[in-house]
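For reproducibility, we list the full input for the phosphoenolpyruvate complex.
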Amino acid sequence: MSARTVIAGNWKMNMTPSEAKQFIGELAPMVAGKNACDIVLCVPYVDIPTAVEAARGTNIHIGAENVHFEAKGAFTGEVSTAMLCELGCEYVIIGHSERRQYFGETDTTVNLRTKAALAAGLKVILCLGEVKEQRLAGITDEVVAMQTKLDLADIDEDALKNVIIAYEPVWAIGTGLTATPEQADETCGVIRKTVAEIYSKKAADAMTIQYGGSMNDKNAAELLAKKNVNGGLIGGASLVPEKFTAIVDAANA
Ligand code: PEP
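The corresponding predicted structure, in tokenized form, follows.
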């Protein structure tokens, strides 16, 4: 089985509910019928009800940007898997580098969140990638292999069908710097090889591995043409309907 291409937007802390409604209303006709890839928008928690409603009957799926691993309790500011599911949310980003960098997320908490999300039936977009110093030190392969192993610890092969890995070199996120298509292909390949070692070649071949890091309307085609790159996780360019549509078009070419 070959991996499905998934083009996902990460809105981060952008767009109010009314802006989300307007955006999806504009985007939906632009991406209608472009079904060679799955299309996902991961939005701030407060936008989810509006986004789910606006995307109803379209080929756009809605996701969240994080989720807590406990079912309920004294975790002020956090949101549970049941809360997301009840709203009709299908996907969730876990382990984004901004969560790791600014909010103390570690591979241990990423693993706990991933297990909780999978148990609730959510599809996980699991983010990992090296920082600039690690790439310059020549240890990118070791770093992404270790993250893959830790983040997927104790997760059954069967559950992997609901896991997408987003390879996001931290130095390329929101910086305008993009990994070359060759770098993206090579490192996504290392992640795939690691999944094959932990699980099986079958699981590795079926896994969607996205590239993320300043992907845009100009560079998407080249990145998506690479064998090991099965889609993109897109920040800045997912806030502009024309740019996001161009990336969806590149995945449908
Ligand atoms: C991201 O937020 O995951 C991302 C890749 O952002 P950008 O496309 O803006 O670099």
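The chain has one domain: 6-252. The pocket of phosphoenolpyruvate is lined by residues 10, 12, 168, 173-174, 212-215, 233-237 (CB under 6 Å). Both points were considered when choosing residues for closer inspection.
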